[in-house]
Write a structure and sequence with these properties.
Layout: H1 2-24, H2 29-54, H3 63-76, E1 77-78, H4 80-84, H5 86-91, E2 96-97, H6 100-119, H7 127-147, E3 168-169, E4 172-173, E5 178-180, E6 183-185, H8 187-211, H9 213-223, H10 225-230, H11 235-261, H12 271-284, H13 289-305, H14 307-316, H15 323-341
Helix pairs in contact: 2-8, 2-11, 2-12, 2-13, 3-6, 3-7, 3-11, 6-11, 8-9, 9-11, 12-13, 14-15
């Protein structure tokens, strides 16, 4: 009965998610665009969750991989290189309009390699020092993109790259609305379904990684790196793998962002973006996939929803209070309240901090937990059940606890 109820809930949820853009587009494409951006942030948060949630490595420069994927798609999906370099125009007179099947794997590989390059010099760093180095890496990439218009114009500097191709595959152009029997599906709704498919694929990959030996090795490093190394885990390779895999998801998200917006500039990849992505992971629940998704959706949609609150407040004060500042204030207050009330996140992992309680056991008063010398101790002081308890309720003849 319980399984049938869960299946019914999953089916209802799937139908709601699939029908969401069709319902939102009746109110205008603006709400569908908000849903699209929220899905892109979910992709970014899931990628960062591998680094921060699974491996416990604080990365404040994650937006750099987002920028690399976006600019890679912009260069390969626009006429910028043809207009800038005469020798390139001779080879590709119509511009380099690369297929999606080539750009996305290339963005994944390039961003993954940059993630490994970032992780290599930081293997011995932890905590605040790692955060400072990764923060610097993100700012270096942004400044690099902002100034790479001289002496050779590659990124077009602060002007950005425009006229980027929309995504086309199997004869379907996502940049144009699709009409079917008098019903029109807008372009932003088509992008929604593409982003949703990528999110589902990322969730499956993340879950399989979490329950695999690699995921358990990452979590061991997160809990105690010295103990993990003593148990034979190659912490160096595992850290590099975490940086590389997390960065690869950021590169794919950046490519989708460039195709969706049709324009990229360094302003879209500021430090605040990295901070917001980290906040999504922490606010939702570090290491817990449903929590990370919830945090990403809330923080991505909350600024847009607050426009309808900040606007009337600005008009009430005769314009003395700026609406954008009010929105930032409301977001900060909401985050502070949530973290005070739910310090482990809105939807934390149920396994985080669990006790070793025997299934169906009766709580023991700590004052009477001690036993007579020489007897078989079944409940050690300060713990609900022996750490060496066997599955199924069976016990070893002697506990290893003191």
């Amino acid at each position: 009965m319980k399984n049938s109820k869960n299946l019914a809930l999953y089916v209802i949820g799937a139908i709601a998610v699939l029908a969401l853009p069709l319902l939102l587009q009746m109110q205008g494409n603006a709400w569908v665009r908000i849903a699209d951006i929220a899905l892109l942030y979910v992709l970014l948060a899931l990628g960062l969750n591998i680094v921060v949630g699974y491996a416990g490595l604080l990365d404040l420069g994650y937006v750099a991989f987002f920028a690399v994927g976006a600019y890679l798609y912009a260069l390969m999906g626009s006429s910028h290189l043809t207009e800038t370099f005469p020798w390139f125009a001779q080879m590709f007179p119509n511009g380099l309009h690369t297929s999606l099947l080539i750009v996305v794997p290339l963005a994944l590989v390039v961003a993954g390699c940059l993630g490994v390059l970032l992780g290599a010099p930081t293997l011995k760093l932890r905590g605040d020092y790692l955060a400072i180095v990764t923060l610097g890496f993100g700012e270096i990439i942004r400044v690099f993109l902002n100034n790479l218009d001289q002496p050779v114009n590659i990124t077009n500097g602060p002007k950005g790259i425009t006229a980027i191709d929309s995504i086309k595959f199997w004869g379907l152009d996502l940049g144009k609305a699709w009409k079917f029997d008098g019903f029109t599906i807008s372009s932003v709704s088509l992008y929604y379904y593409l982003f949703l498919a990528l999110v589902i694929a990322t969730i499956i990959i993340s879950h399989r990684l979490q329950v695999s030996r690699i995921g358990r090795a990452w979590m061991a490093i997160r809990e105690d790196e010295i103990a993990a190394k003593a148990m034979g885990i190659n912490t160096r390779n595992m850290k590099l793998l975490a940086f590389g895999m997390g960065a690869s998801f950021g590169g794919v998200s950046g490519a989708m962002f460039a195709a969706f917006q049709g324009f990229v500039s360094p302003e879209s990849f500021s430090l605040m973006e990295s901070v917001m992505i980290v906040a999504m992971v922490v606010l939702g629940g570090i290491g817990h996939l449903p929590g990370v998704i919830l945090g990403a959706v809330l923080l991505a949609a909350l600024p847009e929803v607050l426009r309808y609150v900040a606007g009337p407040l600005q008009s009430l004060t005769d314009g003395r209070l700026d609406a954008s500042i009010l929105r930032q204030l409301f977001i900060a207050l909401a985050m502070i309240v949530i973290m005070l009330m739910r310090p482990r996140g809105l939807w934390p992992s149920p396994e985080h901090g669990k006790t070793l309680a025997r299934k169906g056991g009766v709580p023991v008063d700590p004052a009477h937990a001690a036993v007579a010398p020489g007897s078989l101790q079944t409940h050690a002081p300060g713990i609900d059940s022996p750490a060496d308890e066997l599955p199924g309720g069976a016990e070893r003849p002697m506990s290893i606890n003191p």
